[in-house]
Amino acid sequence: MHPVTAEVTQRIVERSREARADYLARMESARQAGPGRGKLSCANWAHAFAAQPDGDKQRMRDPTAPNVAIVSAYNDMLSAHQPYERFPDILRKAAREVGGTAQYAGGVPAMCDGVTQGRPGMELSLFSRDVIAMSTAIALTHDAFDAALMLGICDKIVPGLFIGAAAFGHLPTIFVPGGPMTSGISNAEKARTRALYAEGKVTREELLDSEMKSYHGPGTCTFYGTANSNQMMMEMTGLHLPGAAFVSPNTPLRDALTAAAAKRAIEIRDGGNDYAPFAAVIDEKSLVNAMAGLLATGGSTNHTLHILAMARAAGVLVTWEDFNDLSRVTPLIARVYPNGSEDVNAFHAAGGMAFVTRQLLDAGLAHADVQTVAGTGLRRYQQEPFLDGDRLVWREGPAASLDREILRPVDDPFQAEGGIRMLSGPLGRGVIKTSAVKPEHRIVEAPALVFDDQDELLAAHKRGELNRDFVAVVRFQGPQANGMPELHSLTPALGVQQDKGFKVALVTDGRMSGASGKVPAAIHMTAEAAVGGPLAYVRDGDVIRLDAEAGTLDIRVDPRELMARPRAARPASTPGYGRELFGWMRRAAGPADAGACSLFEVA
By the 8 A CB rule, do 309 and 372 touch? Predict the structure, then answer.
């Protein structure tokens, strides 16, 4: 192992010792109790399969016959999730073929961040993760299952399913992806049209035409944002079947992988020789592997929130310092839009996850000695799935990159360090994604322009007031203020000013999209302005220096003077669009550097 990777892993183990022991004890107690159907009255159990086909009914009369839960985030609003409409039938059929049954145990909500960007609904986005976790728990609390299959791909959905599954960590759990849509127009062309629209040089009709050519069919959006970072992480943690992440939907190979997931879930149930519960697959080492994969591929900054919350659900305590230290030694070996010009389909064709996994293991930057749903050891994930006639087989993946503009080996990376760094200074703590920011833009010193919401900044841009060097401070965007919405709609406007030659940066206690790109952005700033964090005291004209190279965020104001100023008034919560229903979550939300989660108490 690389010494820093080993040291970070060990300190996570030490930090988590008490919480992890408590978690494992609870999961072992649940395992010892066995599936609830063996303890249910006949009336209770009959309710559970009253609507099943006759063949399934007869099988389910046997209290030892395996039964698998399907928890799905299917809906038609998410192109990535629309293919899940077909999956339950595939999974049920596959389970029957190996003597088991599979039941659709429950659905979870799944909102599309692509639809809600810049809209009021985005204020519910982060908290939808916690709602999904609770919904997953409701689905599994029937306690009638030997294993679980999680059908989810996008943004908050995989983390929410993960947190919910962790509460039932005695069950083997496999995440079942749907795959990316086929490639549309080039990402460069899409970005160009967005920038022209931000400048008022193309019409809304021309912009919509461009977007429709990019987002054009079923499957995950093909840029490397949070959704596809989720799929990478599920491979690195061993919760996918090997190579399942980036096979397109509605293809024979995709359907074969889906069926194989149901069969494998039954194989690894308690009582067999390959018992692999969620609680054994997810531990300190597998979570370090997830972080290594995120850093090596330039993945989504949203996971500096999600991994912390996901880990805590399994009794593992991860910090931003862990991310920061791993990033210093994990080279960036992938360039996928917005960090490069090509999409995840090109990444997959160039070697994809099999190549990334091999490189990280060979360099000692990931742990090989972990439990996975495919067996013991992460080396299994160096393999790729293929169809040999009708039979699903795995073969060794590429040992060398098939396109060095997209993937490179660890000894010749795109950058010597990973794509995410922690920032600290008088304005608090935050994170920045450096992998998509050119070196010449990583240090910005300029006067602050302060906004209390994103609409104020966009209005200033339309009025032509941003033609200068500036650091945009967009505050009152943290979890307790308004649910911590993504501010991705600011990217085109800020990018236009940067392209004009101005020094531009963003500082916010909100989030940016997993597809955040070329403008340097200090995000997730904590303590947030709503609870009296330093951003609440910044004024227009204060000189701010963001230095992504040094990991610092400074303000040229004496800290005592800054905090002695009158505190900016927190904007009132705005009702409507369901936001009034989430007041308790805003009040309960922990800080960003603990995952911004409303489900756990944070000391």
Answer: no
How far, in Å, are 237, 392, 400 from residue 386 at the CA level? 21, 6, 19
Residues of the chain with CATH 3.50.30.80: 420-594
Q: Tell me the pLDDT tens digit for each residue of 104-141.
A: 999 999 999 888 888 898 999 999 999 999 999 999 99
Confidence of residue 492 (pLDDT cuts 50, 70, 90): confident
Residue 179 near residue 84, CB atoms below 8 Å: no
Nearest Cα neighbor of 327 from 362, 303, 352, 351 is 303
Q: Is the peptide bond before 575 cis (omega within 30 degrees of 0)?
A: no
> Does residue 579 come out as left (phi exceeding 0), alpha (psi in the -120 to 50 range) or beta?
alpha
Q: Is 173 in a helix, a strand, or coil?
A: strand
226: exposed, middle or buried (Cβ count in 10 Å: 0-12, 13-18, 19+): buried
Give me 6's structure tokens.
């080993």
DSSP letter string, 392-439: EEEEE--SS-S-TTTB--TTS-SBSS-SEEEEEETTEEEEEE-TTS-G
Percent of the chain's residues with pLDDT above 90: 81
Q: How many CB atoms lie within 10 A of CB 202?
A: 17
Query: Is 42 annotated as ligand-binding?
Result: no
Report the pLDDT value the prediction gives residue 516, as an integer from 0 to 100: 65
- Per DSSP, 600 falls in state S
Annotated binding residue at 597? no
Q: How many C-alpha atoms does 305 have within 13 Å on its Cβ side?
A: 37
Alpha carbon of 322 to those of 287, 325, 364: distances in Å?
A: 11, 5, 16
The residue among 153 and 39 whose pLDDT is bigger is 153
- Cβ proximity of 79 and 182 under 8 Å: no
Nearest residue to 480 via CA among 450, 513, 525: 525
Is the domain spanning 420-594 CATH 3.50.30.80? The answer is yes
pLDDT at 514: 60
How many residues make up the chain in this entry? 603
